[in-house]
Amino acid sequence: MITMKREEAWGLLNKYLKIKNLIKHCLACEVTMKVLYKRLNQDYADNPAEEEQWGITGLLHDADYEIAQETNNLQNHGLILFEKEQDTIPVEITHAIKSHNFQNTHVQPESAMDWAITCCDQLTGLIVAATLVRPDRKIASLTVDSVIKRMEEKSFARGANREMIKMCEEKLGIPLKEFVEITLKAMQGIAVELGL
């Protein structure tokens, strides 16, 4: 069974991604995925190795985004990485990354990890957008209610798929307000790294 360490994943991310804001987005998803792992597995003993794999999924989920964009191939975003990195990424992480863009890749999310990255990918982007329109541009002053209010504004951050975010309830069993709170608190915890 292939395993991956965080340092390896970080190296891989920086091999393919150069845009700093995309790297920050991946860091936001990494920290959120780790908190979601703990929330969804609270009845089990701590498993740092599995928690790390969830984090790596968040870290690498957009690793091929720049390549997809540069080659005008965004419909295959999530698949391109594995054309270049065969047999280096664990199968569970591979499936989660391929399925987070399932509307284009046609790889369906199945596991909790698959759905967690699918939902939090969209929400982290919306939270960044909501932070940047605040007078102080600081994520520390953002609240759960203000994020939910922004979600309800259809013209705000149109790229963030609200339906995907809301699937946290059906697919993960986490109420929307709690899902927003988990993601926001996770991101606030790395505000310096996110430049927010």
Provide key terms for this protein.
196 residues, mainly alpha, 12 helices, 0% strand, globular
How would you explain this protein's 3D organization?
This protein has 196 residues and is mostly helical. It has one domain (6-194). Helix content is 65%, strand content 0%. It contains 12 helices and no strands. It has helices at 6-16, 20-40, 48-60, 65-70, 80-84, 91-99, 102-105, 112-132, 144-152, 162-172, 176-188, 191-194. The longest helix has 21 residues, at 20-40. It is globular. The relative contact order is 0.14. The model has no long low-confidence stretch (mean pLDDT 94).
Map the helices and strands.
Layout (H helix, E strand, L loop, with lengths): L5 H11 L3 H21 L7 H13 L4 H6 L9 H5 L6 H9 L2 H4 L6 H21 L11 H9 L9 H11 L3 H13 L2 H4 L2
Helix pairs in contact: 1-3, 2-3, 2-8, 2-11, 3-6, 6-8, 8-10, 8-11, 9-11
What is this structure, in a nutshell?
The protein has helices spanning 6-16, 20-40, 48-60, 65-70, 80-84, 91-99, 102-105, 112-132, 144-152, 162-172, 176-188, 191-194. It contains twelve helices and no strands.
Distance between the termini: 38 Å
Number of helices: 12
Quaternary organisation: single chain
**Per DSSP, what share of the residues sits in E-state strands of 2 or more residues?**
under 5%
Given helix and strand content, the structural type is mainly alpha
Alpha-carbon Rg, integer: 16 Å
Please state the average pLDDT score.
Answer: 94
Q: What proportion of the residues is helical, as a percent range?
A: 55-70%
